[in-house]
């Protein structure tokens, strides 16, 4: 039994994201992903004009006649949402917490996926994998994912992206589209993400709150690390302190962008409390153009 407040949140997200999907995103999603996967169909004799890279040398050697492998486009994809629900995600200075924004993002992308007949699954993690919902289709399944995201109470507070990535390798044998949604405040995830980026179509999505980038002048403020419990007092009335805080925030964002670019992993930055649908559409279009080239 879910509370009235939770039911209201789920309904709001369903209406908000469904409208965005129907009005804007469904076509963008299809152009970005469809046609990316190819599966083996059959072998036939080589014909003039065939790509020599598709020659099946085993069959060619056995028959004495050149044969090529034929592939067909995979029209059905499996989309996995790998969502960081560590304690830092409970922060939010706007209308929603970072975790609630992550839930909206998953809903938006999930409705786009099922509209294109794809399956969606969910992995929630902290410093360990806390729950897994296997991929499936349908609106009822997407609503279950939203409910789990909004209602889940993590047992741990820390973050370990590496453990979550390794879990994906254990449960999947087929190439998937993986959306990794986190604030990326953890460490030691670079190498496993490089490996995942080669095995799957990996898209890293960072969710950042505006207050993590700039600090208003409100005098002395005690800041607490939600994951470690460590605290620090800063004087926000000092312009030097505020400028340094902003530099740290913008430098961290640039470092993340550069890191994922060096990995060959697509990266989308979402600012909590803003109209991120436009950012997603822009991201989809840029990616689709690049893939066509």
Explain the overall architecture.
The protein is an alpha/beta fold and 293 residues long. The protein has two domains: 4-34 and 75-207 and 264-292, von Willebrand factor, type A domain (Rossmann fold), CATH 3.40.50.410; 38-73, no CATH class. It has helices spanning 4-33, 57-63, 98-115, 139-151, 161-171, 190-199, 239-263, 276-292; strands spanning 38-45, 67-73, 78-84, 119-125, 129-136, 177-182, 201-208, 220-224, 231-235, 266-271. The strands form three sheets. A six-stranded mixed β-sheet has the order 5-4-3-6-7-10, with helices on both faces. It has a two-stranded antiparallel ribbon with strand order 1-2. Helix 1 packs across helix 3. It is globular and about 80 Å long. The mean pLDDT is 86.
């Amino acid at each position: 039994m879910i509370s009235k407040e939770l039911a209201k949140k789920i309904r709001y997200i369903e209406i908000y994201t469904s409208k965005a999907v129907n009005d804007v995103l469904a076509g963008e999603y299809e152009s970005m992903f469809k046609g990316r996967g190819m599966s083996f169909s059959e072998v036939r004799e080589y014909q003039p004009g065939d790509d020599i890279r598709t020659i099946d040398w085993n069959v060619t050697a056995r028959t004495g006649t050149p044969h090529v492998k034929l592939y067909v486009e995979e029209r059905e994809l499996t989309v996995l949402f790998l969502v960081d629900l560590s304690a830092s995600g409970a922060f939010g200075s706007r209308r929603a917490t970072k975790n609630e924004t992550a839930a909206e993002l998953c809903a938006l992308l999930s409705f786009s996926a099922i509209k294109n007949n794809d399956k969606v699954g969910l992995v929630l993690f902290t410093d360990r994998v806390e729950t897994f919902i296997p991929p499936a289709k349908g609106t009822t399944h997407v609503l279950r994912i939203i409910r789990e995201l909004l209602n889940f109470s993590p047992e741990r507070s820390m973050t370990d992206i590496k453990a979550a990535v390794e879990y994906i390798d254990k449960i999947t044998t087929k190439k998937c589209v993986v959306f990794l949604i986190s604030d990326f405040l953890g460490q030691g995830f670079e190498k496993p993400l490089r490996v995942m980026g080669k095995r799957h179509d990996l898209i890293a999505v960072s969710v950042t709150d505006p207050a993590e980038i700039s600090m208003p002048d409100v005098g002395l403020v005690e800041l607490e690390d939600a994951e470690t419990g460590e605290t620090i007092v800063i004087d926000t009335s000092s312009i030097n302190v505020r400028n340094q805080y902003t530099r740290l925030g913008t430098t961290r964002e640039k470092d993340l962008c550069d890191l994922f670019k060096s990995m060959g992993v697509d990266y989308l930055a979402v600012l909590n409390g803003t109209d991120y649908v436009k950012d997603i559409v822009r991201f989809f279009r840029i990616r689709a153009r690049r893939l066509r080239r």
